[in-house]
Amino acid sequence: MSSKKILTRREIEVLKLIVEEKTSTEIAIDLGISVRTVETHRKNISHKTNVRNPIGLVKFAIQSGFIDGYVYRIKRPQLV
Fold this sequence. Notes:
This protein has helices at 3-6, 9-19, 24-31, 35-49, 54-63. By secondary structure, the chain is mostly helical.
């Protein structure tokens, strides 16, 4: 199952706003929902993606192609 099918449309909207560094209050205002609902979406996103912190959510969003304009590359150690 692709990561895009794991999350609901609303969870993807919340994830994109998290990546934009919006607070839960700002996200709630933007989407016309309560702060508690935003927090529930954050919790559900983290649970579904096995991510434990906001940095992990940003990484997941980039790796999964939810965020346009970013390229995530794994750094490989250089051989000397």
